[in-house]
Structures are given as structure tokens and as C-alpha cells.
UniProtKB/TrEMBL annotation:
This is Abasic site processing protein. It comes from the Bacteria. Gene3D superfamilies: SOS response associated peptidase-like. GO terms for biological process: protein-DNA covalent cross-linking repair; proteolysis. Keywords: Covalent protein-DNA linkage, DNA damage, DNA-binding, Hydrolase, Lyase, Protease. It comes from Persicobacter diffluens. The lineage of its organism: Bacteria, Pseudomonadati, Bacteroidota, Cytophagia, Cytophagales. Its EC number is 3.4.-.-. One of its GO terms (molecular function) is lyase activity. Belongs to the SOS response-associated peptidase family.
Length: 242
């Protein structure tokens, strides 16, 4: 799964990396840790405007939702979209064909279960300092300001070897796209079979390390939230991970 992200890159850095235009007035703070359950705005590129950097809110509101109350109720359940069922689920099937997006990040957080205790880890791409999650999006009139807003879900896939060890309960991971596939993900002419073929565990180089246990309460944290922490309970496995 993917419910906690790290976006410490600036709009300018993302723009330069992915060759995107920055609209006038677009800005966002560095997010060293942000929880999807707070439905934050994150930097994205949309298939309908693939050359522009935009902001969208985490937690997709499906097109068939008819009230703000229903929108609030469903959003915590649509932070992620499973690749295996994305074409069948009512919440996602209208988006996956024409409305795909890139969600830009510099890392994410996941928990490893050891005994009865969970240990958070910061996870990143060694071969992409700024990378893109593959996602889907919808436009909805039910934002906090009651204006039209774009909302998204991050696609998830089965875990790769590293993520199987860290996310050792459900063994899932976010869809991380290789850099050379990012523009293709936004191509609205892709067939369902082409889209499905892109939704697979990341094969690039990744790194990870344990971080502080109070992570979930640290949305306003600074870069220290990424600092490595040594837990005796994990010492016997560290050599196999890093």
C-alpha cells in the first residue's frame, strides 16, 4: 500500500526533471512526511495536460459521487487502487483508461511488522532522486472550498523483493514508473492491455532504512523525519536489506 509520502523536491526541480511547465501561482511546501488520510495536495501531471505541473488532492472522489458527505466518506478508501482490480472496481474503472496521472515524490514510508511491533521505514529510489508514482484521477465539485478540484489514487502492485521484506503483511507497493515510461503513462490512446503491462513492481534500484516510531504524528516535521534509527529488534536483518 502507499499512504505516507515524501515530497522534498521543489516545483522547479520537478519541472526540470520531467520537462513540465509551471503555471503562474503554483507553489507548494516541502513535504518531508505527509499522510494520505489528510487528503493533501501533491504535485502531479495529468493526462489531459501532460506538459504542465499541477496540484491534486490525494483520495479519489469517483465521478458518480453526488454529495459532499459521500465524498468525505469514500476518500479514505480510495487513496490506493490495486492494479489487479482497477479495471473492474466501480471507483476506478472510469479513470484508468482516459484519466491517468503522475504523482511526483522523493520517497515514501511503510511499516515492517516484527513480532507484535511495527517499525516505519523510509523508502526511496537510488536511481531516481525524484520519481513518479503512477496514478488515476477524477474531477469533483466536492472539495473543502466547494470548488472543482482534481483528486487522485496511487496505483499499487505486488511488492518487489525489498518491499516484500518491509511491507511483510500485505506485501504491496506503489506503482513506481521508470523514468522512460512516465510520458507513456499519460498517453490517453493506450489500450487496456498496454496499461496493464505497465502496472508491475519496480525493477530499479531502491534503498530503505528505519525511521522514528512517532512518524504518523509528524506531518509538519522537517528533514529529521527521514533520519535513520537503529532498532535492536531489526539488527539481525539489516545486513540483508542494505
Amino acid at each position: 500500500m502507499c499512504f505516507h509520502a515524501n515530497v522534498k523536491a521543489s516545483a522547479q526541480q520537478i519541472s526540470e526533471r520531467f520537462d513540465l511547465q509551471i503555471p503562474m501561482g503554483l507553489h507548494f511546501p516541502k513535504l518531508f512526511h505527509v499522510s494520505g488520510f489528510r487528503f493533501p495536495n501533491l504535485p502531479v501531471a495529468l493526462s489531459e495536460a501532460p506538459t504542465k505541473l499541477n496540484l491534486a488532492a490525494w483520495g479519489l472522489i469517483p465521478s458518480w459521487v453526488k454529495s459532499a458527505e459521500d465524498a468525505r466518506a469514500i476518500r479514505s478508501k480510495t487513496l490506493n487502487a490495486r492494479s489487479e482490480s482497477i479495471f473492474e472496481k466501480a471507483s476506478f474503472r472510469d479513470s484508468v483508461g482516459p484519466q491517468r496521472c503522475l504523482i511526483f515524490a522523493t520517497g515514501f514510508f511503510e511499516w515492517k511488522l516484527v513480532g507484535k511491533k511495527k517499525f516505519p521505514h523510509f523508502i526511496y529510489c537510488k536511481d531516481q532522486s525524484i520519481f513518479a508514482f503512477g496514478g488515476i484521477y477524477q474531477k469533483s465539485p466536492f472539495s473543502e472550498e466547494n470548488n472543482l478540484s482534481v483528486t487522485f489514487s496511487i496505483v499499487t502492485t505486488p511488492a518487489n523483493e525489498l518491499m516484500e521484506d518491509i511491507h511483510n503483511t500485505k506485501k504491496r507497493m506503489p506503482l513506481i514508473l521508470p523514468f522512460d515510461q512516465t510520458k507513456a503513462w499519460l498517453d490517453q490512446s493506450l489500450s487496456n492491455s498496454n496499461i496493464q503491462s505497465m502496472m508491475k513492481p519496480y525493477e530499479g534500484k531502491m534503498g530503505a532504512h528505519p525511521v522514528a516510531l512517532n512518524l504518523k504524528s509528524s506531518d509538519a516535521a522537517g528533514p529529521e523525519v527521514m533520519n535513520p534509527v537503529n532498532y535492536p529488534e531489526l539488527n539481525f536483518i539489516q545486513g540483508s536489506l542494505f
